[in-house]
Predict the 3D structure of the following.
Amino acid sequence: MRLGLAKHSEIAELTKLFNDFKEINPSNLPFTEADIEYMIFDKDGLFLVAHKGKKIIGFLFCKRESPKNACIVYMGVKKEFRGNELGTCLIEEMLARIKDNALESCYVLSSNCGMTNFMKCMGFTNETELTYLDINLKPKIPALHNSKRSSQN
């Protein structure tokens, strides 16, 4: 297994991999190649990938949110490679790299119990209890411009 930075040539494989991880996409909106490309070239981001042979088996995208803080935005390890220290290697590599960039802290938001427990084992602590709220932006009712109320204005 080897770790490295995500490359432009890996966009298609990473897009498929991201879409296979339902844990990182609670809204079920598909990731696009443009999404992955943005992360690869984000000047405030760090996009690590883990390879076994020529295949990507894990990833971690971390983003600087302020001069001193970063957030792990996405992390995933293929199921068949979990429990083999791959997640630990990704976190340790990320932490080593962000320490070199004068960052003082890193946090992760997770609604996944497995991920939350893993991050606690890595030394992350609960700072707050969060609730994830979502809204479906596809209208369930006729458009407002067709209603009586909007015609009265």
The longest strand covers residues 55-64. The helical segments are 11-20, 33-41, 86-99, 113-121, 148-152. Confidence is low (pLDDT under 50) at residues 145-153.
